[in-house]
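Support case: flavin mononucleotide complex. Customer-provided input:
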Amino acid sequence: MWRYVRRHNQSAIGPARAAGYTERMSLAIIYHTRTGGSRQMAEAAAEGARADLTTHLLRAEDAGPEDLLAAAGYLFCGPENLGALTGEMKAFFDRCYYPLLGRIEGRPYAQLICAGSDGQGAARQLARIATGWRLREVQPARIVITHAQTPEAILAPKRIATADLGACAELGAAMAAGLEMGIF
Ligand SMILES: Cc1cc2nc3c(=O)[nH]c(=O)nc-3n(C[C@H](O)[C@H](O)[C@H](O)COP(=O)(O)O)c2cc1C
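Agent response - structure generated as follows:
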């Protein structure tokens, strides 16, 4: 019943749907990874989301403006490098920013950051870009700490803990459910 009311009450329908994007009801998960951690997180989120919604998992290197335009919501996932987003993730935003400015306003997003010890710089930078696009953050940034602090540990392949992957899957599921139900 609640679901029915939500679907038929215009005032409860989020900006993406109200703006006529119902035909593009999918979630785009864009990720970059250097040592595998963010890929595992993005895959877990995609697995969580797919039960509810069409979900496209894309490497930042392969994604372009049309991929974002075609989706109703976004999950961005990547590592923190040198206190910021990785160059590849930044290049993705640089490539897409102006082609999409004013065209995706109000759409929901969330972010997952994989970091050795901090992650706040990358999360802040991403949030600033999302603010420029006028996206709406619908889940707080989730930062997974891998405790990689020596050069050897930083360069080694990462294995993300099951509990953290579970949290990523939950975030993906929450994004998908919110989009599918029209509450974003
Ligand atoms: C060049 C470089 C710079 C890094 N800088 C940071 C940093 O500023 N803060 C941090 O918490 N971790 C930093 N790290 C660690 C990575 O964020 C961490 O290893 C993370 O798990 C990598 O995610 P990935 O496996 O998806 O590549 C850095 C790693 C590299 C290779």
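Confidence is low (pLDDT under 50) at residues 1-23.

Case will auto-close in a few days if no follow-up is received.
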